[in-house]
Specification:
Distance between the termini: 120 Å
Radius of gyration: 43 Å
CATH architecture: Beta Barrel
CATH topology: Lipocalin
Strand order of the largest sheet: 3-4-5-6-7-9-10-11
Number of domains: 1
Order of helices and strands: HHEEHHEEEEEEEEE
Oligomer: single chain
Shape: elongated
Number of strands: 11
């Protein structure tokens, strides 16, 4: 019965029994080992690959070149605009331009028009909205306020001085007003008479970049010393009485326009440059 009593003994008694001669070895705890695999760096793909069969080489199609950055185009526009504005800035809106000045201004405008491409007012009509200041007109080199059309003469010895000229355009009501500030000389000791003449028109878009204007009336408002006088509306001349040189309507092409600069070319070859004001 020794074997059965051995089974009934406690583990402590078993370990202390003199019958067990061999030393007792208990398992030691092993540290927890985490295996981390390092990711091998990806090798750059060689555009020329060797085929598995024979010595045939396969050449990958190179990717297309990236498009030019938008900033470069904006910088080009800014550079060409500054060039044009620099040429016309000292010409007193064209009144002081000679033939050489006219040629330089025309060349600079053509450069900007070519880079910008054609104008589409059907999609960019909102760009017309606002009050535009005329900074150059090639027609003023004729020394008349009417440009290539009949108009008041101007000059150092004449009592008519041209001030600022604006165009006020409303794309909703289709109003198109040419506004000119004029100073009329008066005999001494009377002060000169300062007036603002507004030539009111309606406009419509023809094609993609042509604007046709139809004259309606002229309003004259005094400024300065006589600014309290009421404005005077000059009635429109009936079409039957208009001379052929003054039909009451005209058209011109918008050849460049952005947020602050506009270039137009008139039906009589007039080049005009405007900036938003």
């Amino acid at each position: 019965m020794a074997s059965s009593s051995f089974l009934l003994e406690s583990p402590a008694s078993i370990f202390s029994s003199s019958s067990i001669k061999a030393p007792l070895y208990l398992p030691k705890p092993y540290p927890f080992i985490v295996s981390v695999k390092r990711r091998r760096p990806e090798r750059k793909r060689n555009p020329v690959l060797k085929s598995a069969v024979g010595d045939v080489s396969v050449v990958d199609t190179p990717p297309p070149p990236p498009p030019p950055p938008q900033d470069a185009k904006s910088e080009l526009f800014s550079s060409l605009k500054l060039k044009l504005l620099g040429i016309v800035s000292g010409l007193n809106r064209g009144l002081a331009a000679n033939q050489d000045d006219l040629g330089k201004a025309d060349d600079a405008a053509k450069e900007l028009e070519t880079v910008a491409g054609p104008v589409d007012l059907l999609t960019d009509l909102d760009k017309l909205q606002g009050r535009w200041k005329l900074i150059y007109s090639s027609a003023f080199s004729s020394r008349t306020l009417g440009g290539s059309r009949p108009g008041l003469p101007t000059g150092r010895l004449l009592p008519v001085t041209l001030g600022q000229v604006f165009q006020r355009i409303d794309v909703i009501s289709k109003d198109f007003d040419n506004i000119a500030e004029i100073e009329l000389g008066a005999p001494w000791p009377l002060p000169p008479l300062e007036v603002t003449a507004t030539l009111a028109h309606k406009f419509e878009i023809i094609g993609s970049s042509k604007i046709k204007i139809t004259f309606e009336k002229t309003s004259v408002k005094t400024r300065g010393t006589f600014s309290q006088l009421p404005s005077l509306d000059v009635p429109r001349i009936p079409d039957a009485l208009r001379p052929p040189s003054n039909p009451g309507s005209g058209d011109f092409d918008v050849t460049f326009i952005d947020a602050d600069t506009r270039i137009t070319r008139g039906d009589r070859g007039e080049l005009r440059v405007f900036v938003i004001s």
